[in-house]
Amino acid sequence: MMILLETDRLRITELTLDMAFTVHRNSLDEDTKRFVPDEVFETVEEARETIAFLMAQYGSADGPLVYALLTKDGNQNIGYVQLVPLEDGNWEIGYHVAKAFTGKGYATEAVRAVLPVLAKRVEASKVYGIRLMENRASGRVLEKCGFHTIFTGEGPYHGGIHEISKSVWTDGTAEDSRGR
Hints:
Aminopeptidase; about 35% strand
C-alpha cells in the first residue's frame, strides 16, 4: 500500500483490494445512503470491483483519485477522500468518514492535507465542494478548509435536482480568488 501522506492522526493511502470489506461496511451507514447514494456498495464484491477500477486511476491525472483514510492508532479504515473530475473540466473534492468516527475532525484533517497535493497533481487552481444543503457537517468541513460558498439553491446532485450548496477553494493563482 502506498501512503500518499500522513497527518497527525491519519495515514492517507492508496486503496488496495484487501480493503473491500471495510469499504463495503463503511458505505452502508445511513449518512452514505442519504448523502452519496451512488457510493453505497451492497456487497463486498461490488466494493472490490470499484476498488480495482480506482486503483487503475492512480497512474493518471484523469481521476477519480480516491484515497483511504486509516487511523494511525489501530490502522482502521474509516473512510476516504477523493478528487473527482466534473463534466466541465473542473474538479470536486469528496470525502466520507464512517458514522462511528464522525464528529472527531477526521474529514477536515484529511481534506486540509490532501487538497493542495491533489490540486497540484491535476493542475487545478480551484476545486469545488458540492453538498446537499441538509448535510451541515459537510458544509462545516468545507468552511474549515477554506472553501467559499458561491451558490445555494436547487441544482443537480447525484442524478436529481436537490437543494445544494456549491463552494470553491482556490490555490491563490486563480484570477478571482472566490472562484467565480
